[in-house]
Design goal:
disordered N terminus; mainly beta; Glucose Permease (Domain IIA); eight-stranded antiparallel β-sheet
Length: 302
């Protein structure tokens, strides 16, 4: 959508073993998508993570972070009223809401043991206001019949995100789906032509129409539609354990629901469809229904 900020830098990989969460405010970077393994030596870990009675979690995270922990594969892990899937390698993942306040409590019950609470502090972030001008008027204040269509389309997207399986694609270092200037940031309050709207749910990357969009990590295509009212060409990729990416305003979609995609594979093309003021890619991420910041996920790989 509109709003400018520069970004250019190359990504670096950090071989690790178990857990991920980001503890410093991100800066804008540009990186090239490239294949990555999901073997344990290529997973992400927080610098301050340390095992506590067999469980590895960070001591603090930012609002909007994706947190990957490790524990005994047979442990029971609960967070925010939900039992989290624990993979055969002992990995589990949770999302930290934009407005979360700490401490977060992750309850871990190892096999044959008692429940152990793990507390994670949350660092608050500043959320600037982004003013977006020039969006099609009917997408800013849609009439009732259009509002009903939007609700139906959003319900389909929400339903597609309910998938939760044992794949560990989420544990590989993510890469940038396109190169370009960051034109909109996660969490910032959006005002469209003077009308306040919900905080921005992802990151916008400005790029010419037709620019190839690459999968930032491996996964399964769970939703694909060419003409949704607000988001235009819309594609969702599930990365396992309730983690998914969404790509909006696309001019073309090259994959279909059920396809397996690999990191770096071209899956779509940048466009300006739906509620867009110019060509760009909106990249959003969810974890168990919680929106998380893709830029923080990218920073984990540095």
């Amino acid at each position: 959508m509109s709003r400018r900020s520069s970004h250019s830098a190359s990504r670096k990989r950090l071989p690790i073993l178990a857990v991920a969460a980001l503890c410093s405010l991100p800066t804008a970077h540009s990186q090239t998508a490239s294949p990555a393994s999901t073997t344990p030596s290529k997973r992400l870990v927080a610098a301050d993570a340390a095992p506590v009675r067999g469980t590895v979690l960070p001591s603090s995270v930012q609002q909007g972070a994706l947190v990957i922990g490790r524990t005994h594969p047979a442990a029971v892990v609960e967070y925010d009223g939900r039992r989290l899937r624990v993979s055969p390698n002992g990995l589990f993942v949770l999302g930290v809401d934009r407005d979360a306040t700490g401490p977060l409590v992750v309850a871990v019950k190892p096999p044959g043991g008692s429940v152990l609470p793990h507390r994670i502090e949350v660092t608050a972030r500043d959320w600037p206001i982004e003013r977006v001008n020039g969006a099609p008027p009917k997408t800013v204040n849609p009439p009732p019949q259009i509002a009903e269509r939007i609700a139906r389309e959003q319900a389909l997207i929400v339903a597609s995100r309910k998938r939760d399986d044992a794949r560990e694609d989420f544990a590989q270092p993510f890469v940038w789906p396109v190169r370009g200037r960051i034109s909109g940031r996660f969490g910032n309050q959006r005002i469209y032509d003077g009308t306040p709207k919900s905080p921005h749910g992802g990151m916008d990357i400005a790029a010419p129409t037709g620019t190839p969009v690459k999968a930032p990590a491996g996964g399964i295509v769970i939703f694909a539609a060419n003409d949704l009212y607000l988001t235009g060409g819309t594609l969702l990729i599930d990365h396992g354990a309730g983690v998914s990416s969404n790509f909006l305003h696309l001019s073309r979609i090259d994959v279909k629901v059920g396809d397996r995609v690999e990191q770096g594979q071209v899956v779509a093309a940048v466009g300006a469809t739906g509620r867009a003021t110019g060509p760009h890619l909106h990249w959003g991420m969810h974890c168990h229904g919680v929106r998380v910041d893709p830029l923080l996920v990218l920073e984990l790989a540095k």
